[in-house]
C-alpha cells in the first residue's frame, strides 16, 4: 500500500514509522524541515512542503496513492485547508484528524472518508487498522490477543454464526455486531452513528455492511480477514 501522511507531529510520525516497518510505502510531508530531517532515515520518503499550498501539493503523487492522511493537529485551519485540497484532488481514500467537536463537524460536512481522534486512538491501532483488510478499529489486549472491529465479508452475508462456524475454522469469536444509522449533526449534515446489538449467539445473522466485533489471537484474526 502507498500512503501520504501530512503532518509529522508525534502521531503522524509514529504512524508513518509503523506503516513503513510493516512493508508499506510512506511519504511523510511537513512544512517544518527539522521534522522532515528527523524522519528521513525512518520512513520511505520525506518531503518538506506546505500542504495548504495547492500548487505545492500538486507535485505529490496523489493519483497513485492509496490513502492520504491529514494528521495536522496544532493548527485546525491548516488541517481543514489541507483536507479541502485533498478532497478537491479526489484522492482515493481521505482520512483527517479532528482535535475538537466543532472540527469534527466541519470534516463531516466535507464528507471526509474517516476521522482520526489521536487523543483517544493510538498510532499502533491505526497501523493495524490500515494493514488488515476490512478492519475498522482494534484494541490490543494482553499477550497476542486483540479485539477487532471489522466489516462483515460479503461471503458471510446472510449466514448465522453457527453456519459461519468462525470459532472452529479460525479460532475467532464474534462478540457482537454493530450497524450504522444516519443522523443529522449540528450542521444538519447526515452522519453515520453506530448502534451496537446485544451479545452475539449461534442464531445471530451476519449482514454485509455491518461490523463484527471479533476476539482472538491477532494472527488468527488476520488469517480470517485475509481469506475473505
Put the structure in a nutshell.
The chain is an alpha/beta fold. The chain contains 9 helices and 11 strands.
Structure description:
With 228 residues, the protein is of the alpha/beta class. The protein has 2 domains: 2-128, 3-Layer(aba) Sandwich (Rossmann fold), CATH 3.40.50; 133-226, Alpha-Beta Plaits (2-Layer Sandwich). The chain has helices at residues 10-21, 33-39, 54-57, 76-88, 101-109, 123-131, 161-164, 166-170, 218-226, and strands spanning 2-6, 25-30, 45-48, 67-70, 94-97, 114-116, 135-140, 145-151, 173-184, 190-196, 211-217. The strands form 2 sheets. A 6-stranded parallel sheet has the order 3-2-1-4-5-6, sandwiched between helices. Strands 7-8-11-9-10 form a 5-stranded antiparallel sheet.
Amino acid at each position: 500500500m502507498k500512503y501520504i501522511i501530512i503532518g509529522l507531529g508525534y502521531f503522524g510520525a509514529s504512524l508513518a514509522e509503523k506503516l513503513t516497518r510493516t512493508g508499506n510505502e510512506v511519504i511523510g510531508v511537513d512544512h517544518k524541515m527539522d521534522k522532515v530531517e528527523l524522519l528521513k532515515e525512518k520512513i520511505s520518503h520525506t518531503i518538506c512542503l506546505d500542504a495548504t499550498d495547492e500548487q505545492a501539493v500538486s507535485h505529490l503523487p496523489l493519483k497513485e496513492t492509496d490513502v492520504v492522511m491529514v494528521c495536522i493537529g496544532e493548527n485546525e485551519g491548516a488541517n481543514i485547508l489541507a483536507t479541502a485540497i485533498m478532497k478537491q484532488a479526489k484522492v482515493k481514500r481521505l482520512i483527517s484528524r479532528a482535535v475538537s467537536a466543532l472540527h469534527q463537524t466541519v470534516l463531516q460536512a466535507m464528507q471526509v472518508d474517516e476521522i482520526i481522534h489521536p487523543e483517544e486512538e493510538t498510532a499502533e491501532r491505526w497501523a493495524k487498522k490500515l494493514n488488515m483488510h476490512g478492519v475498522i478499529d482494534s484494541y490490543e489486549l494482553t499477550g497476542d490477543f486483540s479485539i477487532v472491529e471489522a466489516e462483515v465479508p460479503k461471503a458471510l452475508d446472510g449466514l448465522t454464526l453457527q453456519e459461519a462456524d468462525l470459532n472452529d475454522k479460525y479460532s475467532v469469536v464474534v462478540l457482537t455486531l454493530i450497524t450504522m444509522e444516519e443522523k443529522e449533526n449540528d450542521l444538519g449534515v447526515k452522519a453515520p452513528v453506530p448502534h451496537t446489538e446485544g451479545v452475539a449467539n449461534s442464531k445471530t445473522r451476519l449482514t454485509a455492511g455491518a461490523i463484527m466485533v471479533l476476539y482472538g489471537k491477532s494472527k488468527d484474526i488476520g488469517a480470517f480477514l485475509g481469506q475473505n
